[in-house]
Amino acid sequence: MMEIGLTHYLVLSTVLFSIGLLGVMRRKNLLMLFFATEILLNAVNVGFAAISHYYNDLTGQMFAFFIIAIAASEVAVGLGLLIAWYKRHGNINLDAMSSMRG
Amino acid sequence: MFEAIAFYLFSILTAVMFYITVTTKQALFALTALAAGMIFISAFFFILGADFLGVVQIIVYTGAVMALYAFGMMFFDTTRELKERSGSSLITAGLSILSAVFVVLIFVAPIVSTKIQVTAPLIAGATNSQSVGMVLFTKYLVPFELAAVMLLVAMIAGIVLAGKKMDRSLTLMAEEEIMIAEEANRKVLL
Amino acid sequence: MELYLYIALFSPLVGALFAGLFGASPKTLLTGVVNSSLLFASFLSSAVLLGYVLNGQTVHVEMMEWMATGNLYIPFGFVVDQVSVTMMMVVTTVSTVVHVYSIGYMDHDKGFNRFFSYLSAFVFSMMVLVMSDNFAGLFIGWEGVGLCSWLLIGFWYHKESATWAANEAFIMNRIADLGMLIGIFLIYWNTGSLQYDKAFEVMPTLDNMTLTYIGVFLFIGAMGKSAQFPLHTWLADAMEGPTPVSALIHAATMVTAGVYLVVRANPLYHMIPEMGLFIASLGAFVAMFAATMALVNRDMKRIIAYSTLSQLGYMFVAAGLGAYWVALFHLMAHAFFKALLFLGAGNVMHAMDDELDPFKMGGLRKSMKWTFIMMTLASVALAGIYPLAGFFSKDAILEVGFVEHHYVIYTVLLLTAGMTAFYSFRLVALIFHGEERYKVFGFHPHEAYKFVLIAMSPLAILAVIAGSFKSTYFDMVTKILPNTEYHIHSEVTEWTMIIGTQLFVILAIFFAYKKYIKFKGENKEFEKRLVYKVLINQYYIPYFYEEYITKPYRELSTVFWKKVDLKVVDATVDCIANGIYKAGENTRDMQNGNLSSMLRWMVAGTVILLSLAVAFGLAVRYADEISAVLSGLGA
């Protein structure tokens, strides 16, 4: 219990990921959905960093960097889209987005 | 001992913060909790010896991303209470817990972890930042450059999307509306 | 020579396709003329080939490869040898005549073009049947003539009885064809080839049991096509078709295919004499059996049909006793005079507005002189009076029976010869002699078209002179058939037999004339007798089939339909359909276009994939243990 191993980190990562999934499923507000996505990405980052540490391999950290870069891009584009949407419709409710409905 | 205490402390803190993020009805609370969670995540990176990653986490997430969100939120009506989906919380919780259990099972199962091989070993005698730099600019140079281009594209995209003329969609407009709009455009140009 | 072979074979096909083009359009004389000319071309080519074969050569071509997989090699090969050229001559001669005749006979029919298409298609199938050099090709022709026979019997498909008869013929043939197919499979299984020459080469090495099985199954096929007992009922019912069809298919060519098969397979039947004896006995039985039914029947065409059946019996007697050349010769002679008889009957039918009951005719001699002459000739030939064709062929069969010491068969055949003469002249007497009873029914008979009569004349000539070909024919076919000569050792016996037979037959003819020439009306007294009842009802065999095969089968089918099909098969299918329908109905919500519910489904999908990953991971991890458990279960 006192000796922290890889498994501890992986379990933590998984728990955080589940919290993120919970958010993805629960939230209706698009901005809140973005928050949940950030949580998912961060949960994965924890896992990568832990594996990198326990296997003495930098690849994990590299992936974590790229994930951070992707997260940043995603936020930039996503927020732009959100603003565009909000300007036209006056809300960012997920259930209201049904123009793609078949 | 010290490491264990730090791990459990930050684990609990992070989990709680993220839980607040996904459950709170106040958008501002969610934003704040998320930012806090991000900082606590960086603590794990420091514990794991990935100093550079920890710093990047704080700067990028808590600095840049959170600031972006904060600015973004100014556009929206955030004082209203957030409406959540009703009813199916049991299924929601069940699904997320199940997925967590399965992922843990996969990682804990010995077959997976024994098959991981070291491809970019730590460089002896170098600090974390030094070795990260060496790997990043040798083995991962091309992905690194691509990531830079991607960030640039994302930046431009963000600017364009949030710009002035994006409140109209040609695909959602009727034929006549487009004609009228073009007419108006021409007048402006003339 | 190959060119002539292909012309002989394919010109009927060209004709069939050509007439088929006009199948749905109203009558055009063109189709009749073109088809008849093509048939004539086929006849000429066959004649050229006959001349070639008479010089002692044969033609064997392999047109193309049909199936070549592994050890199975079946080409589209055709052979013109002494046997097949005989058949080709018979088929093309009779069919050319019948084609020309049909132009007159079908003159007022709406399906004129369709008729010619079917008729030519039949000739093509028949040519494939006789010319093929392997059993597979023979079977194609065999099925082809069956199909055309079905089409032509049911030619007037608006008549219930015609469609019924067509189906009966087809189904009966199907039963027999199964036997034939099994025979062919057995041949391939045991000899490794379907080519006649190769298969017969290997056969002597096989054991007797196998050969008997092959012989039996092939003969079942022959029984169906040649309408031997107990599969004979279809032939009489097949008379529902147009009369030229009866002449061509159900007298001259198709029904003799069974005889041809036995003749073709002579090396096989030679090795299993017990089977041959059975064939001969069955043939003799059928000869007698059919002749008795013809004695009392009151339907002109059916009488001739029973006569055909009876003559087929004769052929099988000859073939069964090993006198293959005699069988083939009788086949040829019979084709000429029986086709002539049918065509004459067709003329009478036309004159009498399709009336078939000879009791309502009489005295037609005056108005239909030529038809009268030709039908009398044909009947004399059928009865076997010297010097017409029937004498040479039928007498030869009687001699075979005598020489081979099968005296029972001989006696039966002799009696049948008498009956044949009796019923043939009963028919002639009723139709052409005596009082003109038809006037009561208001018929106005007239002679057929002149070109029809001219078309029939070659058959009439052949019916008279076919006997003179006997020695030429014998020299030709015995190159490949066993050349047993059947000579009765003592000359006295021989002459006694011939003269005795002739006298017997002539007596029968006179008896028929005496009894029916002054025919006034039905003999009520006679009709009450048991013998008459049995005969007119065809020994109650159709009744028996109806009562004990068709009806139980129908009841069984109803049970299966109500119980099995509706309650099990249909229910299962409906259940599957309903299940899918309900599943679709219930899962339609997945596609409701709501993004948040889609997100939830996405997570659900992730969970499923993860669970699969866990399951497979565990399976790989514990593969050894699992296989151990599974093998334990298996053992």
Protein model, in words:
The complex is a heterotrimer of chains A (102), B (190) and C (635). Chain A has helices spanning 6-26, 30-54, 59-89. Chain A is mainly alpha-helical and 102 residues long. Chain A has one domain (6-96): Helix Hairpins (Orthogonal Bundle), CATH 1.10.287.3510. Chain A is elongated and about 55 Å long. Chain B has 190 residues and is mainly alpha-helical. Among the domains of chain B are: 1-79, Up-down Bundle (Four Helix Bundle (Hemerythrin (Met), subunit A)), CATH 1.20.120; 140-190. In chain B, 73% of the residues lie in helices and 0% in strands. Chain C has a two-stranded antiparallel sheet with strand order 1-2. Chain C has 635 residues and is mainly α. The model of chain C has no long low-confidence stretch (mean pLDDT 87). In chain C, helix 10 (243-252) runs antiparallel to helix 15 (324-351).
Could you tell me the mean pLDDT of chain B?
80
Q: Major beta sheet of chain C, specifics? A: 2 strands, antiparallel
Mean pLDDT of chain C: 87
Q: Per DSSP, what share of the residues of chain B sits in E-state strands of 2 or more residues?
A: under 5%
Please report the distance between the alpha carbons of the first and last residues of chain C.
68 Å
- Strand line-up of the largest beta sheet of chain C: 1-2
Strand content of chain C: under 5%
Topology pattern of chain B, helix = H, strand = E: HHHHHHHH
Can you give me a brief rundown of this structure?
Chain A is mainly alpha-helical and 102 residues long.
List the helices and strands and how they pair.
The complex is a heterotrimer of chains A (102), B (190) and C (635).
Chain A: H1 6-26, H2 30-54, H3 59-89
Chain B: H1 2-23, H2 27-47, H3 51-75, H4 89-108, H5 110-113, H6 128-138, H7 141-161, H8 175-189
Chain C: H1 2-21, H2 29-54, E1 59-69, E2 72-80, H3 82-105, H4 112-131, H5 135-153, H6 160-191, H7 196-202, H8 208-225, H9 233-237, H10 243-252, H11 257-264, H12 266-271, H13 273-296, H14 300-320, H15 324-351, H16 369-383, H17 389-403, H18 407-432, H19 438-441, H20 450-465, H21 470-477, H22 491-516, H23 524-527, H24 530-536, H25 541-587, H26 595-621, H27 623-634
Antiparallel strand pairs in C: 1-2
